[in-house]
Amino acid sequence: MLFGVVTLALKQKNIEHTHVLVKVWREYYQFASGRNLAKHQAIQKVKTMYSIDVNDDVAEAILIGRYAVDKLAEKFVKKGF
Fold first, then answer.
1. Nearest-angstrom CA–CA distance, 29 and 78
2. In the predicted model, is pLDDT for residue 78 greater than 90?
């Protein structure tokens, strides 16, 4: 329900947005399909990429943001700016 409410609010304010499903960004980083293992892999990935220690929720938030940045960069490259 929260997903729907947020989507509606963004549309009403004409704010461009994209939904990123867990399965999609986890596949992008080639994580295991099991939830607990994927969370552990997210922590390790963030530690490798940014040399910081974070919990699983923070690690996943960072990687979702990184995924979005990478996809947005691809979009602009395809358009040729």
1. 21
2. no
Q: Give CA–CA dist 38/33, Å, rounded.
A: 7
With b meaning 16 or more CB within 10 Å and e meaning fewer, what string describes 32-50?
A: eeeeeebbebbbebbeeee
User: For residue 13, what are its two tokens?
Assistant: 């304010």
Find out whether 63 and 30 touch, Cβ atoms under 8 Å: no
Whether 41 is in a domain gets the answer yes
Range of the domain at 37: 20-79
Report the 10 Å Cβ neighbour count for 15: 8
DSSP conformation letters of 32-71: -SSHHHHHHHHHHHHHHHH-----HHHHHHHHHHHHHHHH
- Total-model pTM: 0.79
Query: Which amino acid makes up residue 24?
Result: V
**Per-residue pLDDT reduced to its tens digit, 1-13:** 888 999 999 999 9
